[in-house]
Amino acid sequence: MRRMFQFLTLFLLLMLLVQSTASAHHPYSPKRHIVSTHLRSVDEYFCVETAKSSSWSQKDAYTTIRDILYAEGGWDELANNRVYFFGQGYNSNCSDLTSAEEKETTFRYYIEDNTNSTVKCDDETSFSKYSCIRRYGLVKQPDGHEHWNYGVAYIRSVDLTNGGSHTINHETGHLLGLIDGGTKLGNSCTKSIMHSRAYGCSTNYAQPTQLDLDSVDAEVRGD
Questions:
Q1: pLDDT at residue 1, as a whole number
Q2: Which of 47, 117, 174, 203 could potentially form a cystine with 88 if both were Cys, beta carbons 3.0 to 4.6 Å apart?
Q3: Lowest-confidence region among 21-25, 147-151, 155-159, 170-174
Q4: Cis peptide leading into residue 142 (ω within 30°)
Q5: How many CB atoms lie within 10 A of CB 6?
Q6: What is the spatial distance between Cα 66 and Cα 58, in angstroms, rounded to a whole number?
Q7: What CA–CA distance (Å, rounded) separates 115 from 143?
Q8: Is residue 96 within 8 Å of residue 90, measured between CB atoms?
Q9: What pTM does this model have?
Q10: pLDDT at position 117, please?
Q11: If residue 139 lies in a helix (H) or strand (E), which one and from where to where?
Q12: Which of the residue ranges 83-97, 112-126, 143-157, 204-218 would you say has the lowest mean pLDDT?
């Protein structure tokens, strides 16, 4: 009887550990992400738009976001290079791309002084005052899995200036298939780029954690 009790106690502890780990990186259910990440033959081209920012030039914003995406320990080169970012450069905004360039640019970053006036973001019922994302071109899969042709991260100018690494990585995490988490949303504050002070956690991580990277890796591979 005692041995059975010990076994059940150990089992419950393991279940709690698994749940805690799973809540760290919050994959969407059903899965939803930009379809290019599934495809070995398609890279994640990104562009940067600053036409509605009074404080960021296109070159400076592009260079900043490029460096964040390529930072050590970041998203680039996950899943044996299925997630492989390429920049469209700092000579043109997203809106200046040719139709062929635009078609291959699946990650787009719009830096704007006031996102509240321009975009209604995914999973929200009102116009956002904050940095957020929106996906475009839904192709539903038979199992409910959602593939999107491209996504736009609408980034407030002030958020890129103050804590840009967290903001860009957090919104990129959404486009790669991760959702928000934190005590305000009924989840733990286990280390994750998706857990931030805005959701009741004590800190904002600048870079995705290994749990985040593992979760995206599983999303990309279709696990």
A1: 52
A2: 47
A3: 21-25
A4: no
A5: 10
A6: 12
A7: 33
A8: no
A9: 0.85
A10: 65
A11: strand 132-140
A12: 112-126
Helix axes 164-175, 58-69, angle to 10 degrees: 70
Give CA angle at 120 (219, 168), nearest 5°.
50
- The helix (H) or strand (E) run that includes residue 52 is strand 44-52
pLDDT reported for residue 170: 93
Cα–Cα distance for residue pair 120/117, rounded to 1 Å: 9
Q: Is residue 158's pLDDT more than 70?
A: yes
Residue with tokens 């749940």: 19
Q: Are 220 and 78 in contact (CB under 8 A)?
A: yes
Give which of 165, 173, 193, 98 is closest to 132, Cα–Cα.
Answer: 173
186-196 pLDDT tens trace: 677 788 888 88
Which amino acid does the sequence have at 194? Answer: M
Name the residue among 74, 159, 180, 36 with its Cα closest to residue 109. Answer: 159
- Answer for the pair 133, 152: CB distance below 8 angstroms, yes or no: yes
> In angstroms, rounded to a whole number, what is the distance separating the alpha carbons of residues 152 and 149?
11
